[in-house]
Design a protein that fits this description.
By secondary structure, this protein is mainly beta. The chain has a single domain, classed as Immunoglobulin-like (Sandwich), CATH 2.60.40. Helices cover about 10% and strands about 45% of the residues. The strands form two sheets. Strands 6-5-9-10-2-3-8 form a seven-stranded mixed beta sheet, with no helix packed on it. A three-stranded antiparallel beta sheet has the order 1-4-7, with no helix packed on it. A hairpin with a 7-residue loop joins strand 2 and strand 3. It is flat and about 75 Å long. About 5% of the residues have low confidence.
Length: about 170
């Protein structure tokens, strides 16, 4: 097969046109952008408005591992939120921090592409069994202070929905 002069220019032009058509300029943006949303936290109920006593703390307890494992798990309830009056691409973000080495749940977030009910799930946080000596400090049984913050973020602003104290009780 003979290669004709000008064929390489045609191939390069075709590839460039395909990249432009398939690239982010024509696709759906996947990151946070400008925008707003009205959001109400529905569940867990403890994250809503403080009760009549004004107490705004939340208690989370560890549970034993399943299927005979010696690990203990912090299972954080799903965050369920009702999103209304959404515009643009704001993000719903929840961040739980615990003042104990070895308990470090990652923040969870979701771009709000639509109004309606949204569920965000934390992964289970495994705490190794006591006496585990393969790196890190094991978490001792007891009560640890933490902080939970849920917010709507975008390039247009940052609105805090939930700002609560959290008590994490480690049972072994």
């Amino acid at each position: 097969m003979a290669w004709r002069p000008g064929t390489s220019t045609l191939v390069v032009a075709t590839v460039l046109v395909a990249l432009v058509l398939a690239g982010p300029a024509w696709g759906t943006p996947t990151g946070v952008g400008g925008g707003t949303a009205t959001v109400s936290v529905l569940s867990p109920e403890a994250l809503g408005e403080p009760g009549a006593s004004g107490d705004d703390s939340v208690t989370l307890r560890t549970t034993p591992g399943r299927f005979g494992t010696a690990a203990t798990y912090l299972r954080i309830p799903d965050l369920v939120a009702d999103v209304r009056d959404r515009s643009g691409r704001p993000q719903l973000r929840a961040d739980l921090s615990v003042d104990a080495e070895g308990i470090d749940p990652p923040p969870i977030s979701r771009i709000l592409h639509r109004s309606g009910t949204h569920r965000l799930s934390y992964p289970d946080v495994a705490l190794p069994p006591q006496g585990y000596d393969h790196g890190g400090t094991p978490v001792e049984p007891g009560s640890y202070d933490g902080h939970l913050e849920v917010r709507v973020q975008s390039f247009d602003g940052d609105h805090v929905l939930v700002n609560r104290s959290v008590e994490v009780v480690v049972d072994r």
